[in-house]
Write a structure and sequence with these properties.
Elements (H helix, E strand, L loop, with lengths): L1 H26 L9 E8 L9 H7 L12 E9 L6 E3 L6 E4 L3 E6 L2 E5 L5 E2 L5 E2 L22 E4 L4 E5 L4 E6 L2 E3 L6 E3 L4 E4 L6 E2 L5 E4 L1 E3 L5 H39 L1
Antiparallel strand pairs: 1-2, 3-17, 4-16, 5-6, 5-12, 6-14, 7-8, 9-10, 10-11, 12-15, 13-14
């Protein structure tokens, strides 16, 4: 009976974490460049190291000290970020940039480079092109992009070359570094739609098929209807787990009373 209680409790806790993740996705449905998350689960067998994979766990269960070899629980492995393309929204702001295709803009922080698809950029007091939170856009050589104060119109072509001037005369002031990660599991979210690399080789140059759209921003890839539907399903599952726990508790109480009467 206790095993049933643990199974229901683990299921309920997983649904609670799932609701928290869905709530965060919904809170960022209007955040430029936001990438939604989901939870990754695995099956955990009782009495075993939760870091074992399922096949190793099954072999370990052949040992006689495990009384019930058919019981398993739900465990949380990690968060999975979905990197699908968000829609592009026209803003007509020349420093709003959107990536169409696989890749990330590189920005500088005191802790090292960070990567983002949030393209709401502007000029700071030093005429640097910076993110909404003030982080400078970087070139492939990790140089900041500085625009002359009297240079004229800022143009950023699909490959990231930044020029300033007019139709008669324009100067190149830098090139944006757009990078690509073959294995995105190397990335972890770092707030403000930023990602940091936690493992692996340095990123590569983004593929030629990736282009920059000036005057656009990439919307969040959260589908509001889909997330709301999943939230409703998750709430119902959580409520079912709660009812199951209550039922098991009631049965335990009845069993205790029956034993007491017999005694």
């Amino acid at each position: 009976m206790q095993e049933s209680l643990y199974i229901a409790a683990s299921g309920g806790m997983i649904q609670q974490r799932k609701m928290e993740t869905l709530a965060n996705n919904l809170a960022n449905v209007s955040t430029s460049g936001f990438k939604k998350d989901s939870l990754v689960f695995k099956e955990i067998l009782p009495g075993l190291n939760p870091n074992l994979d399922f096949e190793s766990s099954k072999q370990a269960l052949q040992e006689p000290r495990y009384s019930n070899r058919s019981v398993s629980y739900a465990g949380l492995t990690d968060f999975a970020t979905h990197y699908s393309q968000g829609g592009l929204t026209a803003t007509q702001n020349p420093l709003d940039l959107a990536l169409e295709g696989d890749g990330f803009f590189k920005v500088g922080t005191e802790e090292g480079p960070r990567y983002t698809r949030k393209g709401n950029f502007h000029l700071d007091e030093n005429n640097r092109i910076v993110s909404a939170s003030g982080l400078p856009l970087l070139s492939p050589k990790d140089q900041e992009i500085v625009v002359p104060s009297n240079g004229g119109t800022i143009t950023i072509d699909p490959q990231g070359t930044v020029t300033v001037g007019d139709a008669v005369q324009a100067i190149t002031v830098g090139k944006l570094d757009v990078v690509h990660f073959g294995d995105k599991s190397q990335l972890k979210k770092d707030g403000e739609s930023l990602f940091r690399q936690v493992a692996g080789d340095p990123p590569e140059k983004a593929p030629a098929s990736t282009t920059i759209r000036q005057g656009f921003v990439e919307s969040s890839n959260v589908n509001l209807v889909q997330e709301m539907t999943t939230m409703i399903q998750t709430i119902r599952t959580f409520e079912a787990m709660q009812k199951l726990i209550q039922t098991i508790d009631d049965l335990n109480g009845q069993s205790i009373n029956s034993i007491a009467r017999v005694a």
